Amino acid sequence: MLKLFPKEYSFYPKTWILPGEMVDFRQQFDSNGNSIGNKIYIIKPDAGCQGRGIFLTRTFDNVPTQENVVAQVYIKKPLLLDGFKFDLRLYCLVSSVRPL
Q1: Are strands 69-73 and 15-18 parallel, antiparallel or unpaired?
Q2: Three-state SS string across the chain, please?
Q3: For residue 26, which phi and psi values (nearest 5 degrees)?
Q4: Pairwise CA distance, residues 32 & 60, whole Å
Q5: What is the pLDDT of residue 49?
Q6: What is the dihedral angle through the alpha carbons of 42, 47, 51, 56, rounded to the nearest 10 degrees?
């Protein structure tokens, strides 16, 4: 969605789906494998839950190259509620699609 609507999704951290976008993600690191601008990246497995397998890195050497993971620029000061990170989920019930 960020590629289609860059202005509306500018709040979202830069994200790569690896290994499919590995070439683009590798460009975020210098020739020694250190992150450009000393940025921190958060690496999350695609099939994890409750924080298992998530880690932070500043070096490309720590990034798994053969596993399906999501890499994002780490937000150092995220929005917190009562000191906790949170996610927002909306559920809705469609009770009818008439007249359609």
Answers
A1: antiparallel
A2: CCCCCCCCCCCCCCEEEECCCHHHHHCCECCCCEEHHHCCEEEEECCCCCCCCCEEECEHHHCCCCCCEEEEECCCCCCCECCECCCCCCCCCCCCCCCC
A3: -60, -30
A4: 9
A5: 75
A6: -20
pTM of the model: 0.78
Report the distance separating Cα 96 and Cα 98, nearest Å.
6
User: What pLDDT digit, counting tens, does each position of 9-61 carry?
Assistant: 888 889 999 999 999 999 999 999 999 999 999 999 988 777 789 999 999 99
Look at 32 and 78; give whichever has higher pLDDT.
Answer: 32
